[in-house]
């Protein structure tokens, strides 16, 4: 269990890498949304392997088929199931992994938990399972944009110790997509690309940070006390493969400020109550405050490396293992659309929840005879 | 909505600061657990205000009453409701806050979301709501310890820029409780206490980091792909007031390592498969791997400061506000039992979920006629 | 587990008969609803024991205390906890029941499931647990009436073989409340009262049928395919103590009609699409169709009788047991407000769910640049 | 929303009649279960159209494809997605239904709720959506049988006014499958078949009752107070198309008995505590008591009839409509495997829930140092 996400805009995913297919069903999508396979495919193409010379060479078209829930080009309000067939299986590349545990992979823990696992390509623990998330996220994103004018933009802020300079003003998706590394600062992007290639040539891997910003989000999203907006975002991000950390607004650095430095002063701007600074990162008390929502996600270096490593067999015998599968030396560029997708899913769900409770009735006791 | 947490060991909390009471009901607690109000009170006393000279002087006995679910000293398997009356109300201290928004507090967002709020002491957004969490967590902790031998220990690792040295080996709760600041390194604790007093004398506030470690956790807890153990922990921590970040294992620092440096090599130790290092922080692929579970939580400096600050009224008019309520200059010491409580709730829920799916039947098709 | 109900307007109940208290917390109540303890008490008084000479003589004031979620006479949008203290304990009346199983009571199954139980008065399995349901239902009812003009009226249609004649037109609550048996037909009510007194004098008990009708319900409530409106109503009713059956519209009798007799023909009336007959009972395909929602609930005769019965002890030894606790010879009259409460909870939850998905955005792709 | 069912053994279904496909994903299936497409297909074949001369002539092979979650012939513990393609589309048969509302169908309410619908064959409201339920139920049934020795047998007890005599002793599936009408009493079955053919020749339709019995169910399943076993069964049954009623044990007839007649006396039989009679139908206080679980479901006559009926258009204009689609004159025979599937899903989920809470730890406080 654990393959469903969301309360009202609820998704359930399935599929193993090197199994028959991966997919997702969305339950709760509002009816009337114009939707086609192209809307989904566009996002899957940003996630798919083999899209540039700094990602894994595995060739997967990742073509999506919409199985249900859309008719005459619009959503019906019924479940939307979407399926992607796996194509480029090379199970032979994984024969050793059936018995030896790859370091920092989930082979060992899946065996411990379920008493069995699909060894090829990591099975369910492969990042291929995120295809369903991206497909569902594409639907949520379209609703948020079309219905609410909300824009979600994620980008690679740092790789290893290469950090882009602080941006001024909103980032556009075009800037992010300008290079295959998805860092909107071109000079930094070039250095990142070189570093990735260098590391790959050494058979090694690197990690980094993805930042996500949301523009145009209204106030009021987030359900205290447990389902605060940042709590559900943190869960969404830490549910992604290879993530090790999450921070919102001032985050870890904010712990070194005094309250008098950290507090965001309220002021009126153009008839609206706004904050002068945004250390909060767009949330106060777990609820969006109308400022840019801003958070950062830490991705560890890819566990698969093309170097011989010590490990043990299922029986606990020492052995050595040499990475062979096709892999990404750095997952960050392909993580960008996945972070956006999870963000869209969280926001969509919270929008619906807020709407249900707080925009249902306008009580007018005077006009009533109760 | 949003005041429930957990799937099988599920809690629902209620209550506003300065309202009648705060409390919690647990649904799903296993029957037969020896439980008394004293078990709960011991943890509430670690959380309560006025416990030392570095916390808020608000006087609240925080006496818990068990309303249901316990009979003859043992849990019945039925819902356990627990209630704590609010005593030390001083609503007059909050009269200005009814119309002016306190910077970096949730006054503004509650108004935006619900169209109303209880202004006194922050109402539902006050950290008083965590009383219910601590009460429920005390039950979960006792089960984990008694049934599974699991020990959860959180401590204050840093305050502002004062950081304790890396510990060697497990931390004992006695070390944590040795000083009111709950940093197990005595020399660091003294510096922290001085710093808190100094900041308080300036009417200012500071934040810091709480680290939590879990010893004795078995393998197999965590439900991929969304309800990974670290994902639910991240959500639990970011659902706490004043938190801005979460990291597990190597966390943000790990993004600067290469894969060959970061990977945790498997080896056999005393007949068990273990890892040589623990950059993972005890989870692989979202499932506990038998190593120490280790994560860190960032708390911002307390928003309430005793200094005059610019702000606006509900109508958007500029005004000034001077903090008056009794408050903690640094929430970290009292956050320790709260972090432990949330950790216990997550672990208990995951233990039950894993047990339900993976330890239900041992299929033996040969002996069956199906 | 199992003590929570609803998705968005979600309640969690607690409490044992003869324990400290019984209560409920509602999570998800819309803010701004005028609400006082009197609103709740009025419904609890309709449910409470000792209200007439045909109910149990147990004396319980069942005074409700609102612990949270209401401020200045209006709901805050935060959890509303409500608690009722148990007063009239007579545990001595139950001493034999600690070891001997009362026939057709839950003593045996609670022991089997939990390995223990609170013997006094049935503990959690007592109908006293419905107090929390009635309290929460009172809130839901008030919202439905004030916000949506929806009226829920349940009544006793039959007791044993005494059946009221078919009513013409809507039933008013005043008619129902005119006699203590809560049958709106006065002549039938008198016969029912006599029968109940007669049966009580024999130390025996009887059951019957409660019918519930909902007037003014709009179209569109119900979430196919599993959470159909009638499915959630069926669950709600079968979750009540002593219920053995549920039918909606034509129900069991409808299975003897031909399709050509059973189908409800559509027609236009006063500018609205309506049906000529209402065999459907107000739902088509799981969704309300704008006609009167009508269903019926079967209650078995009370299990407690004042006659000596054979049974066994916990150890399986044959013994005899004589009913002693104060009890209702017929639960129907007091079941009426409980059926109404559960109906209100189901409708409220479905209203919120429908609102969230189907009244969120009005997509206008032309005006968008997506 | 509303297309998911269950808490731990949780299914989500998708698909419209005459859309691309219908399917289901199961989250929470225990690992290690031997499972093949044949296991699923066997149950789908019992449900599929065109299986005999008393069902609809629509030709659908209903071939299932397992998309995920099974490897080397066994379940992995990961989500099991299963998909069935729709083949025999004849959208032209439904052209009139795009604008005119079929009486007692869900066309009108889907339009009211979602503002749109897929008119062909009823879209999502078609009984084709139950394919996913049957596929998932086949998995649950196999686990219950293999892991717990539980046997679920449903059968047609009555059609219109043709009622089979009371059975003595357990019904075997072979008896049920002996005739296409699935009534285990052969003489009654013949009369039912004749009646169905007769009604079909008149272009009319009939309904009836399905009874379901579960043998070998242990004590302890059911989660009071809301998720009683019979409450979840009632919901499951009323969530099926065309159902109008549910009763367990003595049901509606039991309301005419006195308590002294209705109570089931406990006795010891072969070392176990059993009841002499089974008016309870296998549940006491919402928990299984070890006796045969027995309940009955009322199905209305099929709404589609081949007769001209009055109705209105979407605009409310009077019109006439003549049924044209291929349909079942009586849904009962094909409902049998569907009722069994839903029963299996409820029992499986409850087994897991009971296991999680009540069979997790055996607390032994003496041996602990807590």
List the main descriptive attributes of the protein structure presented here.
homotetramer, 370 residues, alpha+beta, Chorismate synthase, AroC fold, five-stranded antiparallel sheet, 8 helices, 18 strands, globular
Description:
4 copies of one chain form a homotetramer. Chain A is α+β, with helices and mostly antiparallel strands. The first copy, chain A, has a single domain, classed as Chorismate synthase AroC (Chorismate synthase, AroC fold), CATH 3.60.150.10. The first copy, chain A, contains 8 helices and 18 strands. Chain A has helices spanning 37-47, 107-114, 130-148, 173-177, 186-201, 229-238, 259-262, 332-358, and strands at residues 4-5, 10-15, 21-27, 64-66, 70-71, 74-75, 80-85, 151-159, 162-163, 208-215, 243-248, 266-269, 272-275, 283-284, 287-288, 293-299, 308-312, 318-322. The termini of chain A are far apart. At the A-B interface, β1, α2, α6, β11 and α7 of A face β1, α2, α6, β11 and α7 of B. Chains A, B, C, D: This reaction introduces a second double bond into the aromatic ring system. Chains A, B, C, D: It is an enzyme of class 4 (lyase). Chains A, B, C, D: Belongs to the chorismate synthase family. Chains A, B, C, D: Keywords: Amino-acid biosynthesis, Aromatic amino acid biosynthesis, FAD, Flavoprotein, FMN, Lyase, NADP.
